[in-house]
Specification:
The protein is α+β, with helices and mostly antiparallel strands. About 30% of the residues lie in helices and about 25% in strands. A six-stranded antiparallel β-sheet has the order 1-2-3-4-6-5, covered by helices on one side.
Length: about 130
């Protein structure tokens, strides 16, 4: 696992417990989405398929949020709807809470089930399914 410099900087800015969560998430996401574009987007690590954001994580006040842009369509327990579109999240307060098998299953669905966030502005807020 090689952290890109900008993601390494993001992790370095975190408290040790949060850094452990983010490092664990990075390793699992990167292993399950090989070759997928990853970068800091809106100040947080995010993975993209064909320019479309699919998964990312960010530090919140009391936890680390793992966000799947199309997660409400996964129909998976453990993910909570977030926002007014199709996103769903899981929040972690400790790295031990991360279930690798569960996360791998969610990541497989993230690669298959996508809503077109890349073009949401062009479509004036209307989402369409792309996969």
């Amino acid at each position: 696992m090689s952290l890109p410099p900008e993601i390494r900087e993001y992790h370095a800015s975190l408290a040790p417990a949060d850094r452990r969560i983010c490092t664990a998430l990075f390793k699992i996401i990167d292993a399950n989405l090989p070759g997928v574009e990853r970068k800091i987007w809106h100040r947080h690590p995010v993975w993209f398929l064909e320019g479309n954001p699919i998964v990312g994580y960010s530090k919140l006040k009391d936890s680390v949020r793992l966000l799947f842009w199309s997660g409400q369509s996964f129909e998976e327990p453990g993910l909570t709807p977030e926002g007014s579109f199709k996103a769903a999240e899981r929040r972690y307060t400790c790295a031990n809470e991360i279930d690798q098998a569960e996360l791998a299953r969610w990541l497989a669905k993230a690669a298959e089930i996508q809503w077109d966030y890349k073009n949401i502005v062009k479509r004036k807020g209307k989402l369409i399914r792309v996969k």
